[in-house]
Specification:
heterodimer, A: mainly beta, 55% strand, B: 117 residues, seven-stranded mixed sheet, four-stranded antiparallel sheet, 11 strands, 0% helix
């Protein structure tokens, strides 16, 4: 069973602080990874897509991929109350589909 | 920006009834998907569809489920005889080839909340 694992949280961070989210995956064949933000009752919204080892930055978000250790992380800098949501990590094993983790709930407190 | 459109946004049905969930993928996308998310649980892959046939399906996608692309635009998921445990959000997604950067190629619809009573 190919799994993607995340800490369910909630991860509580003060406004303006850095939120750090982690994700591990079991399928070494996975090459691409995604971070989605999901508000309650809504569809996943893409935050980051990463496929190379190392860091990728986009605005306040930085994704880091380490294929040797099979983990992906997401940093949210200068966290805002609007960042309060569930963050889903997904891998793309062979076959053009996504395998999702259970998500980490983030609460940003003003 | 192109969108994946799903209808209806919310459907309530009685147990044992058939439901059809509809999706209009992005026109130049080639792969189409259905995912399911039971309340409080992870998003789960149901089925992928390419070149007018199922390319892969999960163990969830049993004989009660079917997919169809009845015309050039719509992509439907049918559940023949709904059960209480089919209550979930159902998301349609489409995928572009070659992969679109920087977004990775997948676009999700806004979902249909199915409630089976």
């Amino acid at each position: 069973q190919k799994e993607v694992e995340q800490n369910s949280g909630p991860l509580s961070v003060p406004e303006g602080a850095i939120a750090s989210l982690n994700c591990t995956y079991s399928d070494r064949g996975s090459q691409s990874f995604f971070w989605y933000r999901q508000y309650s009752g809504k569809s996943p919204e893409l935050i980051m897509f990463i496929y190379s080892n190392g860091d990728k930055e986009d605005g306040r978000f930085t994704a880091q991929l380490n294929k040797a250790s099979q983990y992906v992380s997401l940093l949210i800098r200068d966290s805002q109350p609007s960042d309060s949501a569930t963050y889903l990590c997904a891998s793309e094993p062979a076959g053009n589909k996504l395998t999702f983790g259970g998500g980490t709930r983030v609460l940003v407190k003003p | 920006e192109p969108e994946v459109t799903q209808t209806p946004s919310h459907q309530v049905t009685q147990m044992g009834q058939e439901v059809i969930l509809r999706c209009v993928p992005i026109s130049n996308h080639l792969y189409f998907y259905w995912y399911r998310q039971i309340l409080g649980q992870k998003v789960e892959f149901l089925v992928s569809f390419y070149n007018n046939e199922i390319s892969e399906k999960s163990e969830i996608f049993d004989d009660q489920f079917s997919v169809e692309r009845p015309d050039g635009s719509n992509f439907t998921l049918k559940i023949r005889s709904t059960k209480l445990e089919d209550s979930a959000m159902y998301f349609c997604a489409s995928y572009q080839l070659p992969r679109a950067f920087p977004d990775g190629g997948y676009t999700f619809g806004s979902g249909t909340r199915l409630t089976v009573v």
